[in-house]
Design a protein that fits this description.
The longest helix has 34 residues, at 412-445. This protein has helices at 2-9, 30-50, 55-61, 74-94, 103-123, 127-130, 134-143, 146-150, 164-178, 186-207, 209-215, 218-227, 272-290, 294-297, 314-343, 349-356, 360-387, 412-445, 449-475, and strands spanning 63-68, 232-234, 254-258. Helix 4 runs antiparallel to helix 10. A 3-stranded antiparallel β-sheet has the order 1-3-2, with no helix packed on it. The chain has 19 helices and 3 strands. With 480 residues, it is an all-alpha fold.
């Protein structure tokens, strides 16, 4: 994808606005919501500090068994997904140049990056079935010899590499989405997505599907982290003997209903690359909101009411994307260091930060959903219509090509009121659950009640500050 982006920058192309770049000025009692959100996080911390030490463990341990199903159809589902992806890329190359009529930008920026993230956070790791690599990889492994493709031990990436490849690719993805002059140009996006699929598939053949998915394919890494917060959990079963990887596990797995964040209760500490990846996931979405505000553009001499376009702010945007990540990472590490000092912890900084960074997951998910909710409501309708006529040939495959787009769902005072209340509620609930997750993880580091509470105080302050920041971003006027 980075190569495709660099190549595309050399080509003449009109500057398209991102499909979700619509300004919504919500003149609501912001101070009321901000204060209420901060107090909700504070109350959550105080209540948890007074509860018995084993409360988080008992809370997360509860499961409601539902039903069991196997992995037999996973390859078929992935192959269908790959076929759909190939059609979308073709539509991007040969279909309409209008990003609101071509299904490729709408499918990637709205259905995948907004809709699927929401579903992933609610129902679990759907991406493990829907990703367009697993099915083709299985077919190739069958055709050219399973043992050569599946068990390529000599080509496995070294442990020290961690998921830094995924971090680099996620940063490239964020840059392309937020900074590139025309991320919605269908042809430009088709080249980027197509080349990324090919490079990822080649890496899976060289390093193995499981290893590259966990280390290098940033969507799989991100979606797996989000799925830890889901209401549904699937027991995958035991791994087969003989060195087979995750793709070769025994069929069968029971689906259980669990509390949000329950799968974070037994999470292992993340490596430095995993910490950086999670923080980048949160900071990039935050900068997406910040980059459109008067607060950010004003100091650079840019009048938001006369926005010159993305091409004029590439340098400023690139600087801001890096700066937001650095500031969030510094604030998080500082909160962990202070918490460890207050609690007198014997644990290393890497162990404490690698464990407690999991509490960022509900915050990242909540802000992701709240920030892109308007895009999902509006652009989702355009996506449904465009999918019926992917090549702009007058087709009506699903009977939705001529559907009326209801833009009023996110316009007007009444819509603004309920929309902003939902967004604010999602952010506040996400931060409250983050406090619960952090509290439960802190007990694993500090068995003493006083130590656990003290260690969480700086992190809670950071969460309160980020709650205020997130609510302010939703309410402050922004450019389209």
């Amino acid at each position: 994808m980075p190569f495709a982006t660099s190549l595309a920058l050399l080509l003449p192309t009109p500057a398209f606005a991102h499909a979700s770049d619509r300004g919504h000025v919500l003149l609501l009692p912001t101070g009321y919501y901000v204060t209420g959100g901060a107090l909700a996080v504070v109350a959550s911390f105080l209540v948890l500090a007074l509860l018995p030490s084993d409360f988080p463990d008992r809370f997360w341990r509860r499961r409601l068994p539902l039903f069991a199903f196997g992995d037999g159809a996973r390859t078929v589902v992935s192959l269908i997904s790959f076929a759909g992806f190939a059609i979308l890329v073709a539509a991007g190359l040969f279909g309409s140049r209008d990003p609101l009529s071509n299904p490729l930008p709408l499918a990637i920026w709205t259905l995948l990056w907004v809709g699927l993230v929401l579903l992933q956070g609610l129902f679990g790791n759907l991406w493990s079935w829907l990703n367009p690599w697993y099915g083709p990889w299985r077919v190739v492994s069958r055709l050219f010899g399973k043992r050569k493709i599946v068990n390529r031990k000599t080509w496995r990436p070294p442990p020290w590499l961690g998921c830094w490849p995924a971090f680099v690719l996620f940063f490239a993805f964020a840059w392309f989405e937020l900074i590139d002059p025309a991320p919605d140009d269908p042809a430009r996006l088709a080249w980027a997505a197509g080349l990324y699929w090919l490079l990822s598939f080649a890496a899976m053949l060289v390093f193995g599907y499981r290893d590259w998915s966990r280390r290098g394919e940033f969507l799989t890494v991100f979606f797996a982290m989000v799925a830890r917060f889901a209401l549904l959990e699937r027991n995958e079963g035991k791994r087969n003997e003989g060195g087979r990887n995750e793709a070769e596990r025994n069929e069968g797995g029971r689906l259980n209903l669990c509390w949000p964040g329950a799968k974070l209760g037994n999470a292992a500490p993340l490596s430095l690359s995993g910490i950086a990846f999670l923080l980048l996931a949160l900071s990039s979405v935050s900068f997406d909101g910040l980059s459109k505000t008067f607060f950010w553009l004003g100091p650079f001499g840019i009048n938001p009411l006369e926005f010159p376009g993305r091409t004029a702010v590439i340098g400023i945007g690139s600087f801001g994307l890096v700066l937001t990540f650095v500031l969030l990472a510094a604030a998080f590490i500082l909160a962990i260091v202070l918490g460890q000092h207050l609690a007198g912890s014997p644990h290393s900084l890497s162990q404490a930060s690698g464990l407690l960074v999991w509490s960022i997951v509900p915050i990242a998910l909540a802000y992701h959903v709240a920030h892109y909710l308007t895009s999902l409501l509006i652009d989702g309708q355009y996506a449904v219509a465009a999918l019926s006529d992917p090549f702009a040939l007058g087709w009506n495959l699903f009977g939705t090509a001529d559907m009326q787009i209801e833009a009023g769902v996110a316009a007007g005072a009444g819509s603004a009121w309920w929309l902003w209340n939902i967004q604010a509620g999602v952010i506040i609930i996400g931060h409250m659950l983050a406090v619960l997750v952090a509290h439960g993880l802190a007990w694993r580091l500090h068995p003493r009640p006083a130590g656990a509470a003290l260690s969480q105080f700086p992190l809670t302050v950071l969460m309160i500050a980020y709650t205020v920041f997130g609510l302010w971003l939703l309410a402050t006027p922004s450019v389209g």
